[in-house]
Specification:
The protein contains 9 helices and 67 strands. It is an alpha/beta fold and about 1050 residues long. It has a domain of about 80 residues: Leucine-rich repeat, LRR (right-handed beta-alpha superhelix) (Alpha-Beta Horseshoe). The strands form 9 sheets. The protein has a 34-stranded mixed sheet, with no helix packed on it. Strand 10, helix 4 and strand 11 form a beta-alpha-beta unit. One of its GO terms (cellular component) is plasma membrane. It is found in: Cell membrane. Keywords: Cell membrane, Glycoprotein, Leucine-rich repeat, Membrane, Receptor, Repeat, Signal, Transmembrane, Transmembrane helix. Belongs to the RLP family.
């Protein structure tokens, strides 16, 4: 009762309190004045057309409408001058569902026009879904403020709004409204603020700026996301010279920045971001005396020199955002003169050079981002900045992002002095050295990203003092040592812990309960074992868990499966875990699960419907694949287990499948034709099983398929002609089967992306189709071990990809879905692999497969000569033509194949001499020319001298080193009579020979004559002595003959 009788002042306070939370606050005099009866009736009729679920208009009763919520009256007459029903809690800005009901909707009734004195109307942020803006609003002659933004209105904005000649503020921001003619705006002669963000203006033509140029009082113009295109036109004269704020962001201008903008000296805010603008950034922007906020981000092709642009005056600049453009050059030292600068945003450009130490003088700088550039050098060891009040550099800095650059050196100590720093991002540089312990002093730090560098040493225990830390990433460095409980002592707010790819050993007590409840744990390649970490039991909010390669043994604890239903990502691969998995596997929606490379056994667990990526490869699972595999997978990998039985037909019910990998098992039966229904499939690997029967024609429906491996099975029949539809195919591996028939010529009609074609070890016959050379992307062609005949087509020298040296390596993988590539952990993909006969051995290529070019036609019945056109394949790394009937000469131009690492021409009918040019192939690591009809001296020089006799064996006409067979003439030189020294034209060698023979003569003289006098007197000594001399003479003769043979061989090489 006391509250009711407390009087008008208390009522005023209550009403104003309500108004502060979202209503229009009237003055106190108006509350004491009764409103006009006609206005009250009009408002009640207006209310009756509205739907008010939260009963916000419950106060709209009684005789004095001036006291109603959202209503304001004129103090003298009581006439309603303001209706403010904007939603103070729009749902998109508040997570609480309750606020979504604060909006009003329904019908805007014409009774509003009876409010003759109405000057302020705000219906913004409500949900008048589908309603058009009423045309009768244009009759509110006294209206000065109209805000209908984001209120759910759609359709054309009425031209009648142009009648509001007294209107000063108009905001019709909407994403479902349009205007096809802007001429009506010229009637708004008093307009100061015009906001039309999101309104479709694509039909207004190119004169829009000339139309708006007729509004001399305009100070604020916001036309963001209005589908304006072509160019920003140039008006005949700039009449809008009083503009303070201009926002033309998110349009499609695709033009240069207009020069006339630099003449609007009143500009405080200019936003031209995300417009497709190109050309140089006008240097005149730096001379605008009032400019405080400049946004040019996201145009991609705006250019300019950092040194020129940033050394301008920039008298009052607060925010400079030029992210994602083409700025180049170094940051000038004069950057430190922008004393008002609070935000410098330059990521995604081509900024280079070092960071100047003068940035320390930016006392007001709060946000500094030059990530994704080409910044080099070390971070400044010392910063300037003693002029700041704190006497320390960068005292206001809260956000520092230098990620994805080329920074080197150590982390400077001044980083630990940035007391207000909230986010420190130094990801993916080449920083080395220890992490400074002083970083533990940054008590406001919530984000610490140091991953992807070369940091070494141990993790400072002081980091455990960061009580505000949420993101902690030191992954992918060279850090070592123990990680203990002290490292997390006060990190109670930690949600993201990334320690992977270091050499940490987690050393905590068995009953440790962490102070945090993390969402994301990444500890791959850390030593966590041998037992599964017990502390994880206390973590009830984990959604992403990576314990891969963590030296964990034993089985998964039972309590883990009780927590697993929250997991979106689970990676425990590359451990020694064993036992059976929980069945069914229960995880969160869209889960990514990787149990690969362990010792899990038993039957395949039944997955839940939520799992999208399941990798159980390289374990010891046995039994059959569950018959019901309708789980809507994206990736399914069961490879390298002991699974038997048939492939279930139900596997094709997973219509979103990107990857099926069932390779290296004991599967039998035929390939289900239903797999052809998996229209999104990009990788199918059924290799190394016992599958039989024909290849289903239905596989030709897989138009997204990029890699198909069916090798090492018992498949038979012919190649399906439906394969011609596989236009996206990059790898086709059908080797080691029983497929027969001719190689179809339609291979040369499609397959523009085919890199690898293997039909090895089948029963293909007939001639090689010359049209195969149309496969412009082909790098690996393996047709070995078939029954092919005829000659090698000359067109095989036209393989475009083989004729180019492959210098750019990129990992070939398929089936990626980026949504799951969280925090650098594995998402889901199929790694391409292929086995190549290299240097006489079979090797599996994966990571460097994109660099390989190989031609293998071995083990067939090919005849004729080796086309000289083959030597145009300059990128060829492997060529194997062995075990055929190829004849003729080895072309001298084979030396052009400078990338050759392996060359096998053995077991053919090649004749003639071995080209001396073969010795120029410096990369050649394997050479086999054996079992041919080659003849003449082996040119055993240069690189050919690195190969032994087996490389040349089986050629009856070959002679010389390294074979034991001597060439004609070699014996004649070795059969010189007596001890006569052979004639030698080389004076140096002759001089050495003379001393060699002189030393032998003197040795004989001293060894025979001197002892002769002594031994002549004793028969027993004489017999023993001359027996020893015979042995020595035999040894000397052997050494002399060896010396002469080596000399002659060297002279032959020099000739």
């Amino acid at each position: 009762m006391e509250i009711v009788t407390a009087g008008v002042p208390l009522m005023i306070l209550v009403i104003c309190f309500i108004i502060i939370t979202g209503g229009f606050c009237p003055n106190t005099d108006a509350l004491l004045m009764n409103c006009l009866e006609s206005d009250q009736e009009a408002l009640l009729d207006f209310k009756n057309g509205l739907y008010d679920p939260e009963n916000r208009l419950s106060s709209w009763k009684g005789s004095n409408c001036c006291q109603w919520w959202g209503i304001s009256c004129e103090s003298n007459t009581g006439a309603v001058i303001a209706v403010d029903l904007h939603n103070p809690y729009p749902q998109r800005f508040h997570s609480s569902s309750r606020y979504g009901f604060w909006n009003v909707s329904g019908e805007i009734r014409p009774s509003l026009t009876k409010l003759k004195s109405l000057r302020h109307l705000d219906l913004s942020l409500n949900t008048f879904d589908g309603n058009k803006i009423p045309e009768f609003l244009g009759s509110l002659k006294n209206l000065q403020y109209l805000n209908l933004s984001n209120a759910g209105f759609s359709g054309a904005i009425p031209l009648t709004l142009g009648n509001l000649s007294g209107l000063q503020y108009l905001d019709v921001e909407s994403w479902s409204s349009y205007v096809d003619n802007l001429e009506w705006v010229t009637g708004l002669v008093s307009l100061e603020h015009l906001v039309m963000n999101g309104v479709n203006l694509s039909m207004v033509g190119s004169d829009w700026i000339r139309t708006l140029n007729k509004l001399p009082s305009l100070t604020k113009l916001h036309l963001s996301s209005c589908s304006l295109s072509v160019t920003i036109p140039t008006p005949a004269f700039v009449n809008i010279s009083s503009l303070v704020s201009l926002d033309l962001s998110f349009n499609k201008f695709n033009s240069k920045v207009p020069d006339w903008l630099v003449n609007i000296s009143s500009l405080v805010t200019l936003d031209l971001s995300n417009n497709g603008l190109f050309g140089r950034i006008p240097l005149g922007f730096s001379e605008l005396p009032n400019l405080q906020f400049l946004y040019l981000a996201g145009n991609d092709n705006l250019t300019g020199s950092c040194h020129q642009l940033l050394r301008g005056r920039w008298e009052k600049i607060h925010v400079l955002d030029i992210a994602s453009n083409s700025l180049h050059g170094k940051l000038p030292a004069s950057l430190g003169n922008m004393t008002f600068l609070t935000r410098l945003n330059l990521p995604g450009n081509h900024v280079e050079g070092e960071i100047p130490s003068s940035i320390g003088k930016l006392c007001n700088l709060m946000h500094f981002d030059i990530s994704n550039n080409n910044v080099t050098g070390t971070l400044p060891e010392v910063l300037e900045g003693t002029d700041c009040l704190s006497r320390k550099p960068l005292p206001s800095l809260q956000y520092l992002d230098l990620s994805n650059n080329h920074l080197v050196g150590k982390l400077p100590e001044w980083l630990g002095q940035l007391k207000n720093l909230v986010e420190l991002r130094l990801l993916y540089n080449s920083l080395h050295g220890p992490i400074p312990a002083s970083l533990g002093l940054l008590q406001n730090l919530s984000v610490l990203w140091l991953g992807g560098n070369e940091l070494n040493g141990t993790l400072p225990e002081s980091l455990g003092q960061l009580s505000e830390l949420i993101f902690f990433d030191v992954s992918s460095n060279h850090l070592t040592g123990l990680v203990t409980e002290k490292h997390f002592l006060k990190q109670g707010k930690l949600k993201h812990l990334l320690l992977s790819f270091n050499s940490f050993t987690l050393n905590v007590s068995s009953n440790w309960v962490p102070p945090f409840q993390v969402w994301h744990i990444q500890m791959g390649s850390c030593h966590l074992g041998p037992a599964f970490p017990a502390w994880l039991k206390s973590q009830k909010e984990v959604t992403n868990l990576d314990f891969s390669n963590a030296s964990i043994t034993g089985s998964m604890p039972y309590w883990f499966w009780e927590r697993s239903s929250n997991l979106i990502l689970l990676n425990v691969s590359h451990n020694q875990l064993e036992g059976h998995l929980s069945s069914p596997l229960s995880l969160a929606s869209f889960a990514v699960v990787d149990f690969s490379l362990n010792f899990f056994s038993g039957s395949i667990p039944i997955p839940s419907d939520n799992i999208k990526f399941l990798d159980l490869s390289k374990n010891k699972f046995s039994g059959t694949i569950p018959k019901n595999m309708s789980y809507d997978f994206y990736v399914l990998s069961l490879s390298d287990n002991h699974i038997n039985g048939e492939i279930p037909v139900s596997i094709a019910n997973n219509r979103h499948l990107l990857v099926i990998d069932l390779s290296r098992n004991n599967l039998t039966g035929s390939i289900p034709s239903s797999i052809g229904n998996c229209s999104f499939l990009t990788a199918l690997d059924l290799s190394m099983n016992n599958l039989f029967g024909k290849i289903p024609e239905s596989l030709g429906r897989l138009k997204e398929l990029q890699t198909l491996h069916l090798s090492d099975n018992k498949l038979s029949g012919y190649l399906p002609i439906s394969f011609l539809n596989l236009s996206s195919l990059e790898t086709l591996d059908l080797g080691y089967n029983r497929i027969m028939g001719r190689i179809p010529p339609w291979f040369g009609k499609g397959f523009k992306s085919l890199r690898i074609l293997s039909l090895r070890s089948n029963s293909f016959s007939g001639e090689l189709p010359s049209v195969l050379s149309n496969l412009s992307s082909l790098q690996v062609l393996d047709l070995a071990e078939n029954q092919l005949n005829g000659s090698i087509p000359a067109s095989f020298g036209d393989f475009k990809a083989m004729s180019q040296v492959q210098n750019s390596n990129h990992y070939l993988f398929y089936g990626t879905f980026d949504h799951y590539l969280l925090y650098g952990t594995r998402g889901g993909y199929y790694k391409e692999n292929f086995v190549v006969n290299l240097e006489g051995q079979f090797r599996t290529y994966t990571k460097t497969l994109s660099l390989l070019t190989s031609l293998d036609l071995s083990g067939n019945n090919l005849s004729g000569g080796l086309p000289i056109e083959i030597t145009k394949l300059l990128g060829l790394v492997v060529m194997n033509l062995s075990r055929n009937h190829i004849s003729g000469y080895i072309p001298e131009s084979i030396s052009e194949l400078k990338q050759l690492s392996s060359l096998d021409l053995s077991s053919n009918e090649f004749s003639g001499v071995i080209p001396r040019s073969l010795g120029l192939l410096s990369f050649l690591g394997f050479l086999n020319l054996s079992k041919n009809n080659l003849s003449g001296r082996i040119p055993y020089s240069d690189h050919l001298s690195t190969f032994d006799a087996p490389s040349f064996a089986g050629n009856l006409g070959l002679c010389g080193t390294p074979l034991a067979v001597k060439c004609p003439g070699d014996d004649e030189e070795d059969s010189d009579s007596g001890w006569t020294t052979p004639k030698d034209n080389n004076s140096g060698d002759s001089f050495v020979d003379q001393w060699f023979y002189l030393s032998i003569g003197l040795g004989f003289a001293a060894g025979i004559l001197v002892p002769y006098i002594i031994l002549a007197m004793r028969k027993c000594l004489r017999e023993a002595y001359f027996g020893a001399v015979d042995v020595v003479l035999e040894r000397i003769l052997y050494l002399w003959l060896k010396h002469r043979t080596i000399q002659k061989r060297n002279r032959g090489h020099q000739q």
